[in-house]
Every structure is written in C-alpha cells, then in structure tokens.
Amino acid sequence: MADRRGNRGKPVGMKTAFLRVAPFVLLSAQGGCVSQSKYDDAVKDATQVKQQLQLMASRTAERIQADDRLASELGDRIAGLQKAMQDRDQKLSEAGVRGHNLQAQLDESTAINQQLRAELSRLGKNVDQLLSEKGTLSRSLEEAKARLEELRKAQIAAEARAALFRDLVARFKKMTDAGELKVSLRDGRMILQLSNDVLFDSGRAELKPAGQATLKGLAQILASVKGRKLQVAGHTDNVAVRGGRFASNWELSTARAVSVVRFLIEHGVRPEVLSASGYGEFDPVGPNDSTDGRAKNRRIEVILQPNLDELVAVPDVK
User: Does the model's pTM come out above 0.85?
Assistant: First the structure.
C-alpha cells in the first residue's frame, strides 16, 4: 500500500502544487506590478488547491483503510477454514478403524479430504489475486463464498457417509466374522457381497435354505437403514450356461438378483428402495482362469447407492 502515499498520511502531489503557486504569489508581492485583488485571488486559489489536496488525501487514506480491513477479514476467514480442516483431520485420525473392510472406507475418506484441502488452497490463492484486482473485488468475493459453501457441503456429506459406513460395518461384524458376508467400498459405494455358492445351486435361481438364513440376517439390518436406495446385482463366472431355462449368464444373474429382491421385501425391506440388475460374467472381481477366481466372481452384491445431495460438484477454480 505504501506506493499509493507520500510520507504516510500526506497525499502525493501536495508539495508540488504549492511550489507551482508560490512563485507567482512571491513575484506579485515583491515586484509591485500585480494588484492587491490579483494577489488575493492567487492566495485564495492556493488555499482552494490545498483544501482539495487535503480532501483527496483524506479520501485516499479512507480507501486504503477499507482495503486493509477487507484484506484482514479475508485472511481471518481463510485462517478459520484452515483451522476447521485441521480440527476435522485430528478427529478423523482419532477415530480408530479396525479390520480390512473398514480400512478401505478410510482410504476413500482420506482421498476426499485431500481433494478438499487442495481446493481450499487453490481458493486461498484465488482470493489473494482478487485482492489485487479492486475493480472486480465484489463479484469475485461472492463467487468465493459460493465455492466455500460447496466445499462445506461436500465435507458434511463425506463425514455423514463415513459415519453411516462405520455403523453398518459394526452391525454386519457378526456376519463378516462368520464368513457369510464381505463388506467393501468401490467407487464411493458400500458393497455387501454374498457368494452364489451359498445362495444358489449351479445354474438355478431358487434360494437354498442356507442362503435364506443368511439373507434373513441381512434383511433385518437393511430394513432399518433410512434414506438409502439399494441395488441387488447378480454376477456369474464365464462358464456358459448349458440347458435349463436360462439362455445365458445374463438371464441367470438377473433372475438371481430378482429372487434376492423378492426375499428381502418379504422380510421387511421396503420395495421402493430396491432394484435388481444382472451383470452376467462381465464385471469380474477375480480371474476366470482359476477355480478360486471363478468362485469369487459368482456372487450377489447389495449396493448402497449414494444420495443425490451427496454428489456435490467441487467447482474448478481458474
């Protein structure tokens, strides 16, 4: 700010203006060739120039003070946001995560937090740039506020999703410990995975008694989950279907998903939150060239779909 003032408080140009007027006044007074009225006019003009320069200096000082206050407020806001991010990081690090499945959820949360930190850092640099562009300061500050609000919504959604995942992992612990269920995270979605070999006989879509017992426990927990859509997805290995009423693995995987959906509805899960889909052999989680790999691919997945209000778009800061 120093380049906009003279000796801090005195506007640049005041001294120069007096030097321009002073020689005329002195010559007039000493030479005797200027009338008293002209002399008075010159003094009056000099006084007016001085007042105008003082007024300009006052306004310039007020504007500089306003700019300094605005810069200080923006700095405080950014510091507050950074403190909030640090507090959230500390809470996240203190919330112990146990087991392989929960580790996957923690990895997702960490990735989201890194994205938020990077965006906040970029936003801070953008605000610094806006401070140097006085002409567009008001509009740019409104844009910055909107971006910060989007970041706040994204953080709240991520924390709520992480809390739900932790709660469900704890409630499914008995089933996962017994090997009946596997919980994982994929593409930001919680996946509950059951083996087809437990649920169905080869080439069939009717639930076996053992599979029904497993699904009863699953249905009891899913019926209590509020505000979530559930997709039941059927998967097979790459061994072609031969004979029977199914023409391909597409039809077999879809029929199995529908059977699971019907069973869940019969045991308390609301039908309006359920959907069924079949992927056949085309979404493997293991290699189909080995017995173990094909066994992993024969599965039913119950997917907790993200809500639309959690899909907060993080804006690009240019």
Answer: no
